[in-house]
Amino acid sequence: MNRKELRPDASPQAAYGARLRSLREARGWTQDDLAVPMEYSSVHISAVETGRKPPTLRFSRSADRALGLQGTADTFEREYRQMRQGSLLEGFPEYVKYEGRAVELRLYEVGVVPGLLQTREYAATLEADAVRREATTPEQAEERVRLVAHRQSTLVRTPSPLIHVVLDESCIRRPMGDSSVMAAQFDRLLEFAEMPNTLLQVAPFSMGARRPFSLPVTVLTMPDRSIMSYAESAQRGHLEQDGAAVVAILKAYHQLQAEALPQAASVALIDQFRKGSQ
User: Fold this and answer.
1) The pLDDT value given to residue 73
2) Which strands sit side by side in the sheet containing 227-232, from one edge to the other?
3) Phi then psi for 229, rounded to 5 degrees?
4) What is the 8-class DSSP label of residue 112?
5) Distance CA 61, CA 59 (A)
6) Do 93 and 205 have their domain in common?
7) Which end of the chain is less packed: N or C, by CB atoms within 10 Å?
8) Distance CA 232, CA 141 (A)
């Protein structure tokens, strides 16, 4: 029997597989033995142990049940979720928890349409390029596309949260995918602007130095009226909950909104780009 030597330090997925094998063998079980309570084939288990197949949430929960890890601090489900978030910026998963409960969101984005307004095709195109650059794996890319849809679904509730979005002009000028992807994305932006709980503005290039932000920023107002902000650099995201610091960011956001195009002019500009994409 050929036994593949595992290298748990090679990647989070390799570490997951090595731990699964270690716990299985500690119980004196073969892959066939584990396959019965997990309701997965021994071939599938072997592929996960050797890193040839990535684990899924369902697989992880099955492993926890079979190995008696449910309710402990070291579940495979927890390890899987940590792996899934491995391609996300530090601080972003924490931010998402607050985003889904906020009563008011103010977003400013540069370069790309923000996730809360992306179509699935736009998000998939963006993530496909990250895979091409080897910045993420195909599995991580798919998880991130699903996360975009999940984030959007948390904002569909009653009462609706107020959502203010200011897009740098680069967001609508930068092509993403083919013309059909962009046409659908422009349609999505125009639909967003028509909603009763939203405000959509474009910050034109002509603002020049009057633009208060050079990086994306988000300000959240929570149900208790507390405020927090989230900003990203290329390396990490930072959730700011100090009231004084967030007030300064909120003041700058109001200045941004005052200088940006009004919604009617912004919609007209987006519609102009939409017609050009057809």
Assistant:
1) 81
2) 198-203, 162-168, 104-109, 217-221, 227-232, 237-240
3) -130, 160
4) S
5) 6
6) yes
7) N
8) 19
